[in-house]
Fold each of these.
Amino acid sequence: MLSQLGMIREGGMMESGIFEKLTVLGDGAKYDVSCSSSGHARLNVGRIGSAACAGICHSWTADGRCISLLKVLLSNDCVYDCKYCINRRSSDSVRRTFEPKELADLTIEFYRRNYIEGLFLSSAVFVSPDHTAERMYECLWLLREVHGFAGYVHAKIVPGVSAELLTQIGLVADRLSVNIELPSSESLSLLAPQKKPDAIFTPMTQITRTQIEQKTLKSAGNMRRLKPAGYGGDDDWLSGLPRNVDGGAAATGGVRGMPEEAAGATDTTDAALAAEIEDAADVPAFRGDARKTGGHIVSENRRKTYKEKFAPAGQTTQMIIGASSESDRQIIKMSEALYRRFTMKRVYFSAYVPVADSPALPPLLTPPPLKREHRLYQADWLLRFYGFSADEILTEDAPDLDYDLDPKVVWALRHIEVFPIEVNTATEAELLRIPGVGNISVQRIMRQRRVQKVRYEDLKKMGVVLKRARYFLTCDGHYYGGREQGPEKLRALFALEEQSAHTIETLHGVQTSSGAALSSASLDALSGATLEAMPGASCGTGHKSAALPPVKRLDASAIRRELGGGEKAQLSLFETSLG
């Protein structure tokens, strides 16, 4: 994107001031990860652009396309002094602020040049939350009404914003998000004392209530359909929030406290949306000036046949991981509470990148906890799609995830007594507990069972990962996992496979100075010292690689044969079959 911006600037199509703002504010937005595929299709009534369900913001669609989104801050001139933030008031960062019209014009020009298909708009709090929200709304209103842009828009809501402004922004955005920032109120008061829990949870509650009123509230994944028996309630931080909307209907929550009409609500179809004959919101004060200067691209008749829905793609939030001392169990329990109390579409985790020197934060040279972030996302997936509860994934005795193994595998090994599961008689919830079996595979198994029995040979065609699943299932009464394996041996097998796969990925990802990927043959020709000096290679890689044969695929059956030989045999096998 920056190379394209440079070409535009050299060609005289962008003023130097706007280019500088975009460079600074685009870079400042990179720490916010709460944007991804929208899952929402906005009805296009004669406008330009589209918000396709396929995905936004550098997401890979089912047909292999990468869809881009302009991710930018409206301003980085913040009045808050959050210790973990690069844009905090005490930071000596360069400060820039877009005018709403500047950013709206820039977005539509990028869209017309096919650089982007949507906008992710966030901002630091400049002047006040309401002042910031007014400027964001003005920018989005110009995009929708003046430029006629119907593409995807994700707007970040500033904590403390007024209810009226939140409603207006929700009517011009597809998705809203309010960052919870940290997993506990103690961490929030320590690292971001100017942000209060009430200021964060009040807009979340309003978004949920409005979606209930419009009957557009949808839960994340399978959370309503697969109700975990082990769900233990809301997090203490959320316990004081109101549960009921006016009239007695529950405002927030998933399984607990959610009204039946909200639990069964589905997105209104495009045809129904087009049939509604009234405008969604009052005309803002600056709307008349826009008509005088540029008019509307969308005709009045076409506009009046379409009623904007409030945040039809739902709401998300983000937590920073690694800046504070909470355990993984606290983080996952907070995520579960957010899903069930506010029906979030997604809770994002952002590994903390040290940008400030503070005794309350990790040292500046601390690497971001990327592996922890990855395992938390896997645990989050179990909450949303596999019917797990936070108390099942992590316990008080084991409050942190095993970063060497998938959380689903760890749960299965901890509850080995429930396996193997017979695929021809198990329920959907039971099938989802089998490692290597996903939602799509389960649906295929259930469909085939209506017609005939599922054979072991069919499972691979259905997408089941047999190298993992065969130890936890039976098919038509037959077990295909070889001789009986205990949890410790299975754990060693899975850990060895993941470690070997990671080593292969590291070695094959090493780049030569010219940028070309190294092959197995070229790796063998390099000296140990050269290998250790390469990016991504750790100390000792050169000594191991120089003494090994060419990298080859790991022979899983050989690993299983050697498992009976103890730890020494396992280590010997790993060192002689790298890859």
Amino acid sequence: MFKKILIIAVLIFASINLYSQNNYGVKRLSKEDINKIKNQIDLTNKRSNVNKAFHKTMAGKVAIADYIDNSTSKYFPPIILQEKGSCSCASTVYYIFTYDYNKMENRLSSEDDNQFAYLFTYNLVNDGYDSGSYGYDVMRSLYYHGAMPKNTYNTNSITEWPNGYSKYFAALHYRINGYYYWFSDEEENAIEEMKTFLYNAESNSKEGGLLEFECAVGNGYDIFKDYSGESNTGYKKIVPEFAHDYDGMHALTLAGYDDKVWYDYDEDGEKDDNELGAFICVNSWGSTWGDRCRFYIPYRTFSDEMEITTGGIGNGSKLILGLAPKTFQPKLMLKLFLQHNSRNDINLYAGALDANGNEISRQAVSQFNNLGGDHPMRGINGKEKLEIGVNISDVYNESAVGYYVQICDTIVQIANSDETTKGLMPAENTGKLLACSLLDYSNGDSNPAEYIGNISTYSLKDKISSTAKFSLNNAVIDDGKDISYRYYYNNDNLYTFRFNVSVKSLLKAGIYSKEGKLIVSLFDGYLETGVETKTFDIGKESLDLSKNYILRIYVNNRIDYIKL
């Protein structure tokens, strides 16, 4: 059965510890790693019923052509020479996401503005070193961080995170809705289903899809052979088997197939069924490698006839991945300016508050939790200070009048050498929250409302239980310092405020709906230093009393709400 999984929970993409790096860019997976992936996929699949249309189509045995080559499509981007060990990101982000997104939007992939920066993703998944990555982790990053447009990223660094809210915000518009997968040696009809996907993607597409897989390629130049046999697509190179014993793990892209290709494995001159047909593969080693960086891979290498250690494809398993892109419009974003010397110790949480300051919802923000390795915020030898954009749209609530962000350092488990004393202690590395604000895009990208956070402490706390909630848009203005005020409720319509400010301060007052939409502006001007009194007539007789309204007072980026 063909599977598409919608990514709908943090548990789906729990981090997998990968190891045994090599020079080709894919981390070798153990059986334990593969079992973790399988367990997460199975759990996800039980929650998904989004593919009924495609399942029915597959049940009807869709007729497909005997070849397809999507690498010749206008949606397929130009061949690249990947930066060092970034092959999995080059395949999944640059080739596949660029192709799929531009196919969805009918854009030319040959234009730089329509290509996506695979190194942005690589820097998020490689632990801050050129240590390689794995396709499953790349999918996780595409879901949480999105794909950054190439011209927005604008660097070739393989260890450094970009600085600037706008860059992270731009990437979040280009995410994936889910992913497709096969274990090609374990599932009946997997190869035929992969061919169907390459031919017409989700059965209703005029263009086919692309797929990522991983394999051992040795030194890279000994694996392919010249091919002069029959074909529909005319390529002159073939890889009948890959390197053995996980030598040089690498990620590649399937762009099509050709049923006419034949490789005589037993050299008997007979066209045996298990010798016919091959996928069309695209590499990321530059256009001079292979046949314009393309070659054939017989279907047999994906089946259970060829083990991974005897020339078959795979990395711990024969997992094949595809993706489903989507355009995403963030509703709520955090702009955070952080200082830290060990970014993978950071944990983020966000929540929504009601008019009384009670918590409505709360969740971990998986986008940046324990990410990036034991390095400063920018990366190896980089700066400790970094501005990032964090998506918290999942905590958006129409009845909320406030949101908060909670930032913590990781708590580590300790034990004495004699194991007589065990307990928790804070991580040695600590950081600071230098600035924060919330941006509300519920009315679209062009006119976001930004609320400057009232930071009650600049240090990141050691423990979650003692971490302060950094109030974003329900801050009480009466702090006894630069600004203070008291208000007096005169009657149903009049509210009088007595302000005392030590510096000239911008004051805005207005009536808002519970969704945050401005209904009536009451004041927009400046308060001079000293004591000043303002009375606002809220005009209740003109309001629809069946709805909830809020009087919002804004003084120099500090905000208070009064429920009417």
Amino acid sequence: MNIVNREVTGLAIPANPVRAVREIGSAWTRFVESGELSGSAPRATIAHRWRQSRDLEINPLMERAPEGITHDEIQEILGNEDLGRAGRKVLDDSARAVAGTGHVILLADAQGRIIYSAGHAGLQQTLDRLNLAPGASWAESAVGPNGIGTPIPLGHPETVFGPEHYCRGWQPWVCFGCPVTDPDDGRVLGGVDITGPARRAHPFAFALTLSIAGSIEQLLMVLSLQRRQQLLEAFRALERRWPGDAILVVSKSGRLIGLNGPANRVFGLAGSDDSLGLLSEVAPEIWSPLRHALERGTGAEEMLTLSGRSTADIPVTCRIDPISRDGQAIGSAIVLTEGPGAGGRSRRRREADATPRQTSRYGFGDIIGAAPALREALSLARAAARASHPKPILIVGESGTGKELVAHAIHAASVRSNGPFVAVNCGALPRELIESELFGYTTGAFTGARREGQAGKFESAHGGTIFLDEVDSVPFELQGKFLRVLEGGEVVRLGSATPVSVEVRLVAASSVDLRRRVEEGSFRLDLFHRLGVVEIELPPLRERVEDILVLANTFLRQEASEGRHRPLELLPEVAACLEAYHWPGNVRELRNLCARWAVTVEGRAVALDDIPRHVRDAVERRPRGTHADRGGLRQSEDAIIKQALLESGGRVGEAARRLDVARTTIYRRLKRWAESE
């Protein structure tokens, strides 16, 4: 995995732009009228593309590009695909610099369809008339040579200057383009283009284009490394669960990420090799069903005969299941069970899906922090974990505060620590599948169901702990079935009337105030009271200022250990910036930032320029002393809470609703005020 080291080619700004416009413009007129070219203008690359455009019958008088992608498709790319997420972030960070030069920067996908833009607002309005804007198609096959459509198929940077454009409508402009490649396999994912008036063409804009494309590729590499780490964690969990079967984990592109000993014996590969290759090359028999499973977005199970590299042909049952994080598929788990009758044994052992039936990965000792609010929450969690008769636990906290980490620790410290720990993100399950995923189903329960039925997550967690994240996402009509599990210890599979006894400890989590959901009528009051026997509130990172640098340095040491290099140091001004930032993504955001630094920072210390622009801008907008004067901040918060209590007549629930905080936050303050009097 590496960032493309581009040779700086493609800068084609004429030494004498005025004369070049005249000469190239005359050549364009002759070519449009006769189809013939003579002389040195235009250069060979452009001449070839003019002929190509003429053969495709592109209108040389075109003045507006066609539409190529819908708004909904753009939002899907920006929100869920790596190119969109990384590109949008980098373009936003670069917008001010590009706007200052009087240019506009554009991001396009591999088909040359524009998905995002930033830069000079006035120029963008002008370019909108050409449809050089999100939603338009600027593929060469649609609009002739340009800074988007030309570099993408060429695979290298290219400049299209003024009259070099085949279509007259684009000729007043100069376009500096550069492709963006996948750090894993070098595929062109899309391209970056900076456009401005041809009369003001300057090499600086070309250099800026290359820099922005390189920044996107660096961020793509960070995302790829994070995804690889998630896949390796899933692989290790699968190894623990099924040590006797051949196990492979592959990325979405089909690249092998890990394989265990039994798989190595079949395919003759070393599991420690960092470049295991593509599944299509190592095991072509598996690649076809995997590709079909990826297209459908579902799991699959087939009987196959593998041609082993070191053994004779082997009949196996091949079980393929998607691996997802945050609702997005990041790869697939493949489990191969050998021998006749393997299919039935495989199905019985894997009824609970490829989500690993694992014990907890973390304990209370893995939770870092000394903030009073965190210590108070962990003290309650330890007491709940040690209870001889486990009660349901509700963990409340913003996204990224570590709710699943605490759930793992509770399981590890409980009497059920040797049992399975099954984590389910209720918010990531499609509404129409949530019942069958949680409670299981019988034969023929619905179209597409497995013939033998399937156990649900509650059955998979029998004897252990089930962790339900985003429990507020469970549809109202299914919440009654949760009550039956909590009250009677029974589940009923979809399509069945026979209850199945289960013994599980339920740990639920929510990032929203369930009391408000109850008031809104979207969450059952009786279920809330059963879930919240023990309620643990995790504080956001902005309320744990004393923990921020401890966490950051810990994460940097972990990244250094994995990468086998010295840990990065935080310069004093960087440390101050981190402590002043409000961390909307909490600990998860801080950890991801440290992972990014481990990849992108070349020296031994993190400098201010290494901090993302949105973090620096947020800190600069905050009043001076916001975090430095912690006592003043606490006093201000106390005053706001007291005023809300006064206005609500002392009703804690009403004050919490007005302030958009959990009731436990106010109760904690009331307790502190009472102790200090």
Amino acid sequence: MCYGRCRLKHYSFKYLSDNTFYTQINSKMRREGFFNLAAYSNDPVSIATAKIQTQFKETLPNQIISNDKDLDLVKLTNTLNPITSTQFSPVKNEWKQTNLPTPEFKKKQAECENATNGDQFAHLSSMASSVNTSSRLRCGWVYNTGDYTKGRGALGTINGPIETTASGTWMWDLNAAKKKYHTEICNNITNCGDIGASMYKGRCGWCKKSGKAVPVSGGVAAYPFSVKTACPPTRLQNNANKCTEAFVNPSVCTPLPNGALSRDCLLQKVIEGGCNDEGSMYQALRSGSDNDYLSQLKQQQAWSVYQNRAKQPLDETSLKTGKMTIANALDNFYYLNTMASSELGNGLNYAARDLCFKKGALDSYDFCSELNDSTNGPFSLDCLQNAFKVAGGQTSGKAYPSAATSSKWNALGKWSAVKDEINAMRDKTRSSNRVTQENAMMDFYGIILQNKQTPLQPPPPPPTITARIGEHCDASSGWRKPLGVGTWSAGSGFPRDTSYISVPAGLTATLVNSADQREIVKGPRDFNFCSRGGFNDNVSQIMISASA
């Protein structure tokens, strides 16, 4: 409940344009008062009062959006007229909006969040210069102290952001956030030559007095009243080309006698550009030859993909020899980091991640996902085979794409034609024409269907394996006969004068003489009956069986 000047009780509102709502309520209350003059319907004051009540009961001019689903605006905006002591609510619950995000909220939130060109510092600077500090609902900044580049703008109040996915410290003062961000940018600079890089140019200068970089604006120190960021104009250098050894800190980036940057300098700039030591770029530079820093990188797929697709490919010649300025080196790696940090999700993005963040990242990318119906060949064998399998075809299919048949598939032209050919083949496996179906089943699945006009013949029986028996206790003289699997008796099953047996692999022969002695012969093996007493011309039974 409120008296005189009506104020809302707390700040849980999502959207309320400036103070218009309060101003209109306040001014109209002072002029007419919210009391019921229905008995004097023709009275001018009564008519005016009715119009005001209609305005605030039916056509609220400003939306009040809340993230509190239980918020009751009737109770929240109860008003007491001190003249009549009549309590009523000029606002109805029908105006309460909790189904966020509403179009108005989304628009305002987008204005706070979006950096149209991806430059978050430029976006923060723009907001800081145009912010209406009298508004209780405006853009603030979520500052990520772990990585300042991951900070984001957000719509909120002094108490915090209303809705954001960014993590960090809420900074309601955009100019303070800008100063902190600006200082962090320049803290990355290790020597004067860095200030010429696009990521620093016009934002950071080199202070000869402190031997460090400081934030600049318009060619002078941007924050001259802070000890860490101050620098006398006469001691400030803004042109990297005019950096001299007199005020450049000795570092790994001091040029070599031939004017080239050392390997260690390039590795340092890889890190300063936003990449890390797990990326293939860093690892290749570290292990490359002294005459060619890129010798270990140029054979990698990530390098070729990035160089072929990037609008600004890496400067191969300069990186190979190190003959480039510090600023150019930083620009190369900073742009690589920009591509790697994007969310494009395409081959270029994955190649950049491989080079900048994690060697091998490109291995997980499916290049076939980039193909659309209008893409022209030739197509990689992997994509042809994948399309065949996705449609249901089997690697055993006669038409399964291979190195030998890839030219046939590529001759179809567009990717849509390749898919149509595969789908047509699949459809033919259900054809009512038997010949068409048989051929398609063989091509698509590698399955042979029975030809009903010429039925399939049963497969031939496996060849019969037999032992061979003979006489004269050797393998070359006298008669010879086969003896198959079974139990055979002397006289009826084999001659009584049998004295030699040859057993092939896969069979075992058990010989039993009249004294019930046994000799087991497991193939492949020959047995001379004369070699064991009591067996020559005296075997009564031979049992042939398959070996276990």
